[in-house]
């Protein structure tokens, strides 16, 4: 017997694919085909999209019975109303036009007024296309946050959005008809009216760049990867599903990609091991030791990969008998009774968290369930406790976390996004997908990354004594490794990201894979379970997978979840095998079935694996879905990006979630690269209207939308998205008395001299303005920071990780925003000016945003600690920043180490002025250190800002 240790990702995924079944199954497409009306709200909550009947995410990993279905909430009344600019209906009399993609669009029998000049028709089966788009993660008749951010339409809401969604849904459906082909834009020219050509371009470009169509490993798609890259270099850290997905997409977009992988293989927590033995009667099987189950096959991108490779999927059959400690089967009536009671307690816990409100954030799911179990003692009596504990172990398996540590408020926050369809195994193992994705991708194995440097000029990834440089980097390091701190980031990641990383949970699942000489168990089932009489060991070998139908040999895998999974890490493999065989013999030997010794056994130790330190993420007490979004945020002004299952709010802890996050970040990296290229072109050819644009900006800031201390903000009121871009201005006035308290006797005089010199270079102005771009939400968070301008500056630099620049440093993105704000203000009535906001009150009235801001404001108030220099130092002007290692970095290259004069200037808080730039910085300007009470700032102000 060969006993070894290897190592998981998690077990869920999506797509419409061929599935092998031994019994006929009903069509998994939802029975109801009604779709909600187009709403004036551009982005309603995904849980409210449709009244479809859709398969519910199993609260247990055991296959669901046919009746285990639920429906999404119907849209509330305020989502079903239209504003005066939104057309509510249309006529179908013209072949080129159709009803809106609302209930009218999807129900051809509905009575609608004539509006045939506005809404197009492409395909009579609009309902089917809307459902296919839904399976791909899109609301059928509205936009996602990402689409709004990408500006796919000029106006959110209204007929343009309706037509865009019709075109978008049609393109997705067309590709799904043949996912092995490359869908070109030209294929739609004749079917889409000419006046919608711009919408066709917008929809097609968005879908291709974001990996919603034309992705995968089909020959027609692989042919689109250019022979020679034409775009900047990118370093990807990790060759798991997210890293491989991003690498292939970026290569197709023309980027030069290098993937660094610490292991000797690709796949990360998805690992298929070939097990074999038996001497003369040799047997072999493929064992998935990591991520194994594809959950939800409607639209699953991994299912699409399987189809492209010509692989069928095996549906995990519903039959799952449970056995007691003595090996006797559990009575079916008792099984149903306890399962119903368990789900009722979960429902009661769900209602409890609604009543508790924000307080539920600090309560665990386990505590709530145990309380209800004791209160409703008749629901689960002592006799049923072993069976009840089995269901608890199954839930802990699905979440890779102890119920005592799962958040009552948000443990199931991803439920609204679940993809429908069956749970499936891939015959031959998921390693077949990994192998296809890794083909022709430049992967360097056994490169353990320990340091990542990032700055405005690019990135350096250090593995051992090798340094890999790139324009950008994608970090797919598992959450467990990030939590351990074994990888150093220079500069340190923003506190916001570190806090989110700390709050999220990261759990453990282990397996024992056993290859037997022959199949001795039932062939009509894929799973069976075993009960224990000890709650602390309820997850120990609680579920068995029969892999013989898909592994190519007589293979059984036993799962270890919950608290038992952690104890298993230190259990000798021989002891583990002894326990498993004892369970199997207790079940089968009373029936006269001999249980042979396994030929080969493998025990996983994912918690001890240095490249993952666990299995997959969960929402722990104190955390929420917001933390997944925080984990996904890039840092370093679009230089360092993050992907992986722990960055995917909709599909965390899943294989498809990891894959989709890689496609998402590939699109984000391409967008940032494109923006930088445009900015470089603008810098080479400065606009002749630069002076007028600067004047326009100054005019807009006369009436800022937010104003607090020396900070003021302008943003567009038309776009209510909290992630929309705003412009922040920081004003450095002539030193005020309160800023000079406790300073040196000559400091006031030095400040006067400094500002007198500055005035001569800035048209005798009394103020110096510097700017940055940030989101509305970040601006509101900044406003809530207490402690004055010093604390706000510290928060801006340390927590938000932004840099202050001169007017020209804002680039073309700001120019476009300035123009749109100016145009919008020109259309406002005088009574609706932003003067009312100068007290700090925002006009944003989005309820969910307000709640989030209140919660985050509390966090800020508890973490607003000054960071002593030099880490809090920054250089303002032309995107310069001082790193803790005392290198001056600009947007193009490292120009010089910080000289001793600068260091001394910071340390002594002296004000120094000169007409000569520091060594290594070209151009004339004024250099000075400017001390606040506790935060020293370093300025190099270029004269052309």
Automatic annotation (TrEMBL):
Question: Where do transmembrane segments lie in this chain?
Answer: 925-943
Q: Name one GO molecular function term.
A: oxidoreductase activity
Q: Which GO terms describe its biological process?
A: chromatin organization
Q: Where is the composition biased (Low complexity)?
A: 17-34
Q: Which UniProt keywords apply?
A: Chromatin regulator, Membrane, Oxidoreductase, Transmembrane, Transmembrane helix
Domain spans labelled SWIRM = 123-224
Biased segments, Polar residues type: 1-16
**Recorded family membership:** Belongs to the flavin monoamine oxidase family.
The UniProt entry, under InterPro entries, shows:
Amino_oxidase, FAD/NAD-bd_sf, Flavin_monoamine_oxidase, Homeodomain-like_sf, SWIRM, WH-like_DNA-bd_sf
Would you tell me the protein name for this molecule? Protein FLOWERING LOCUS D
What is the species listed in this Swiss-Prot or TrEMBL entry?
A: Tripterygium wilfordii
Q: Region Disordered: which residues?
A: 1-70
């Amino acid at each position: 017997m060969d006993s070894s240790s290897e190592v998981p990702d998690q077990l869920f995924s999506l797509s419409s694919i061929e599935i092998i079944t031994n019994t006929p199954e009903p069509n998994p497409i939802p029975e109801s085909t009604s779709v909600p009306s187009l709403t004036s709200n551009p982005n309603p909550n995904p849980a409210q999209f449709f009244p479809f009947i859709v398969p519910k995410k199993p609260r247990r990993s055991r296959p669901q019975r046919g009746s285990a279905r639920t429906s999404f909430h119907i849209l509330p009344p305020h989502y079903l109303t239209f504003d005066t600019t939104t057309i509510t209906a249309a006529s179908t009399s013209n072949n080129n036009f159709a009803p809106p993609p609302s209930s009218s669009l999807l129900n051809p029998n509905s009575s609608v007024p004539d509006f045939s000049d506005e809404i197009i028709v492409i395909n009579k089966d609009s309902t089917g296309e809307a459902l296919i788009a839904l399976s791909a993660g899109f609301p059928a008749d509205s936009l996602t946050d990402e689409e709004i951010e990408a500006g796919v339409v000029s106006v959110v809401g209204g007929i343009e959005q309706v037509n865009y969604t019709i075109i978008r849904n049609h393109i997705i459906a067309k590709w799904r008809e043949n996912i092995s082909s490359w869908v070109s834009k030209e294929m739609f020219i004749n079917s889409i009216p000419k006046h919608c050509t711009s919408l066709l371009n917008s929809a097609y470009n968005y879908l291709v760049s974001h990996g919603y169509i034309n992705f995968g490993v089909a020959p027609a798609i692989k042919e689109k990867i250019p022979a020679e890259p034409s775009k900047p270099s990118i370093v990807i850290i990790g060759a798991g599903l997210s890293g491989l997905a991003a690498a292939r997409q970026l290569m197709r977009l023309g980027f030069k990609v290098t993937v660094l992988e610490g292991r000797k293989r690709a796949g990360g927590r998805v690992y298929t091991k070939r097990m074999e033995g038996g001497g003369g009667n040799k047997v072999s099987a493929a064992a998935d030791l990591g991520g194994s189950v594809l959950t939800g096959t409607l639209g699953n991108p991994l299912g699409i990969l399987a189809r492209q490779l010509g692989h069928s999927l095996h549906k995990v059959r519903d039959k799952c008998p449970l056995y007691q400690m003595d090996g006797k089967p559990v009575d079916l009536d008792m099984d149903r009774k306890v399962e119903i009671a368990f789900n009722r307690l979960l429902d009661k816990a769900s209602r409890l968290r609604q009543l508790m409100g924000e307080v539920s954030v600090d309560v665990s799911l386990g505590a709530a369930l145990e309380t209800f179990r004791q209160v409703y003692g008749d629901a689960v009596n002592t006799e049923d406790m072993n069976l009840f504990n089995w269901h608890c172990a199954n839930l802990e398996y699905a979440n890779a976390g102890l119920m005592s540590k799962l958040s009552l408020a948000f443990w199931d926050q991803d439920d609204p996004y679940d993809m429908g369809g069956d749970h499936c195994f891939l015959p031959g193992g998921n390693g077949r997908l990994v192998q296809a994705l890794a083909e022709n991708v430049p992967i360097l194995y056994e490169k353990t990354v320990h340091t990542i440097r990032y700055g405005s000029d690019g990135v350096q990834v250090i593995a051992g004594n090798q340094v890999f440089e790139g324009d950008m980097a994608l970090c797919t390091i598992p959450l467990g490794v990030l939590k351990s701190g074994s990888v150093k980031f220079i500069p340190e990641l923003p506190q916001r990201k570190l806090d989110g990383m700390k709050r999220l949970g990261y759990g453990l699942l282990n397996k024992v894979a056993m290859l037997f000489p022959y199949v001795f168990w039932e062939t009509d089932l894929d799973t069976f379970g075993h009960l224990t009489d000890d709650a602390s060991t309820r997850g120990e070998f609680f579920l068995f997978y029969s892999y013989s139908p898909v592994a190519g040999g007589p293979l059984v895998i036993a799962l270890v979840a919950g608290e038992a999974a952690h104890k298993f890490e230190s259990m000798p493999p021989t002891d583990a095998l002894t326990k498993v065989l004892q369970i199997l013999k207790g079940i089968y030997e009373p029936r006269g079935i001999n249980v042979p010794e396994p030929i080969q056994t493998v025990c996983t130790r994912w918690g001890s694996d240095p490249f993952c330190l666990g299995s997959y993420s969960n929402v722990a007490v104190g955390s929420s879905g917001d933390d997944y979004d925080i984990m996904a945020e890039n840092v370093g002004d679009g230089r360092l990006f993050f992907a992986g299952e722990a960055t995917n709010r909709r599909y965390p802890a899943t294989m498809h979630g990891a894959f989709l996050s890689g496609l998402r970040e590939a699109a984000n990296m391409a967008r940032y690269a494109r923006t930088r290229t445009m900015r470089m072109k603008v810098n080479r050819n400065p606009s002749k209207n630069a002076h007028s644009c600067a004047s326009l900006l100054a005019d807009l800031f006369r009436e800022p939308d937010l104003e607090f201390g020396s900070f003021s903000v302008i943003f567009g009121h038309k776009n209510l998205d909290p992630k929309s871009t705003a412009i922040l201005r920081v004003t450095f006035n002539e030193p005020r008395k309160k800023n000079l308290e406790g300073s040196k006797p000559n400091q006031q005089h030095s400040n006067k001299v400094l500002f007198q010199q500055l005035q001569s270079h800035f048209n005798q102005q009394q103020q110096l303005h510097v700017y940055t771009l940030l989101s509305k939400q970040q601006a509101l968070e900044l406003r809530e920071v207490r402690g004055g301008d010093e604390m706000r500056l510290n928060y801006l630099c340390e927590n938000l990780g932004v840099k202050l620049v001169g007017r020209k440093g804002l680039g073309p993105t700001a120019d476009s925003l300035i123009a749109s704000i100016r145009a919008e203000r020109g259309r406002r009535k005088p009574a609706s000016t932003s003067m009312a906001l100068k007290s700090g009150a925002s006009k944003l009235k989005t309820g969910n945003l307000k709640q989030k801001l209140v919660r985050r404001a509390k966090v800020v108030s508890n973490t607003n600690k000054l960071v002593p220099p030099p880490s809090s130092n920054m250089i303002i002007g032309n995107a310069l920043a001082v790193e803790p290692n005392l290198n001056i970095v600009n947007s193009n290259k490292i120009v010089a180490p910080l000289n001793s004069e600068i260091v001394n200037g910071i340390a002594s808080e002296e004000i120094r002025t000169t007409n000569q730039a520091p060594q290594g910085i070209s151009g004339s300007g004024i250099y000075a250190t400017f001390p606040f009470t506790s935060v020293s700032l370093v300025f190099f102000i270029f004269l052309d800002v």
